[in-house]
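quick q for whoever's on today - can somebody do inverse folding on this one?? i tried earlier but teh output was garbage lol. tokens:
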């Protein structure tokens, strides 16, 4: 399923700007439109094909990677002005991005190279922006890109901006928790991601029992890790690293965990899935993904 989405994205991006489908939420079985990359499926959504008989290794497809990421959180929707809803999420997300930089967890994506160099472990977090206007769901990438361009007046000039849009919209029957994509704002390339409100959503919950975070924040942290890893290794058309069934490094280890908690560079701890490593798989040193392939790393 994901492979089809990625192929469609590659084709459509040849004439970018364009053709974002109508309300795919309804037309397409709860999937976002084809311009979304790195769709993070819910736990109960149909699994990937597994591409029986093909190599589990990810291969390079000729595109750029993100040598670094300049991250900014965009909190979109009226609920973000409600302290009960916001709870620990805003400070928690800022802390997550700050602590991700130079963490051992971030380094699990450092083996990936592209036309513009190699993925590096550092990111620069610019904090958060709040927009209390009514948010859209994730069915249309163009709507999320428009929100990014509205809120970010000066995107990172190096093209390494990564703008993560956290909405107060519930997932409903959508089969995914989040996705990442790429586009331009004022001619500058940007990476961006979409996240549903995952409060009380067991289909997108890592079941963090540490007591360190609210359930809603713990769930956002989990899918945030997945999307950022994928954006760094496969940010945009024509694509960088994914396997024969279109699975990116986050997809290949989704909903599997190498440790109860991962510790970040600022000392914060999170329950996060691992990320796929060809090196670890070849050496047999990763922990197994849901298909039993030992290529997942948590950066412990
Ligand atoms: Zn994904």
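ok took a stab at it. sequence:
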């Amino acid at each position: 399923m994901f492979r089809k989405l990625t192929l469609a994205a590659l084709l459509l991006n040849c004439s970018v700007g364009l053709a974002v489908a109508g309300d795919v939420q309804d037309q397409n079985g709860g999937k976002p439109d084809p311009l979304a990359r790195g769709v993070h499926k819910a736990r109960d959504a149909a699994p990937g094909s597994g591409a029986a008989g093909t190599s589990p290794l990810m291969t390079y497809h000729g595109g750029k990677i993100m040598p670094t990421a300049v991250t900014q959180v965009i909190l979109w929707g009226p609920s973000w002005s409600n302290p009960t809803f916001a709870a620990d999420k805003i400070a928690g997300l800022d802390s997550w991005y700050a602590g991700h930089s130079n963490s051992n967890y971030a380094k699990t994506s450092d083996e990936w190279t592209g036309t513009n160099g190699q993925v590096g472990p550092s990111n620069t977090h610019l904090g958060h922006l709040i927009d209390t206007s009514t948010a859209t769901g994730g069915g249309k990438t163009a709507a999320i890109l428009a929100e990014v361009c509205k809120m970010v007046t000066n995107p990172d000039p190096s093209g390494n901006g990564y703008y993560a849009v956290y909405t107060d919209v519930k997932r409903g029957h959508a089969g995914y928790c989040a996705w990442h994509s790429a586009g331009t704002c004022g001619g500058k390339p940007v990476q961006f991601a979409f996240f549903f409100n995952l409060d009380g959503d067991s289909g997108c919950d890592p079941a963090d029992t540490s007591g360190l975070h609210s359930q809603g924040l713990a769930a956002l942290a989990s899918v945030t890790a997945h999307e950022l890893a994928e954006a760094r290794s496969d940010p945009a058309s024509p694509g960088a690293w994914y396997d024969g069934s279109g699975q990116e490094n986050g997809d290949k280890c989704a909903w599997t965990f190498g440790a109860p908690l991962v510790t970040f560079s600022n000392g914060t701890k999170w329950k996060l899935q691992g990320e796929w490593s060809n090196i670890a798989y070849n050496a047999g040193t990763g922990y197994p993904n849901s298909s039993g392939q030992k290529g997942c790393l948590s950066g412990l």
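fwiw The chain is about 25% helix and 25% strand. also The first helix runs from residue 2 to 13. so keep that in mind when u check it
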